[in-house]
Amino acid sequence: MIHRVLGVSLAVLLCAACASAPKQSKGTEPTMLSRSRAQWRVPSGVPRSGMVMDLRIEVLVGPDGKPDIETLRVTGLGAAENRDVVVGWLQESRFQPAQKDGQPVSGTFKTRVQLRGEVRRIGG
């Protein structure tokens, strides 16, 4: 009998704890709605086959959907050669801002751009 009462009491306490926990509203990250074509630059000294460029891009997008270029981070293979290309690409792109509780807020847009090359022999 005592085990049964303890079991029921424990179940009630667990339910009460779950019911009183604050609900976490999940936000969304900014997304790119449209983008322009970028003229990527392949770094010099990189073999023309395999991975020729691998950029990681992070930028803060405001509630108005505009990227804040002052917060831009470009890293990876080809970052130095393509920073100005990335700036132009982001400025010409359209973004859906991050959302929290249904309202637009600032958020970090992250993406990766990779280019692979291959060498083909023509003829025999």
UniProtKB/TrEMBL annotation:
Top-level taxonomic group: Bacteria
Taxon lineage: Bacteria, Pseudomonadati, Gemmatimonadota, Gemmatimonadia, Gemmatimonadales
Organism: Gemmatimonas aurantiaca
Name of the protein: TonB C-terminal domain-containing protein
Signal peptide stretch: 1-21
Alphabetical UniProt keywords: Signal
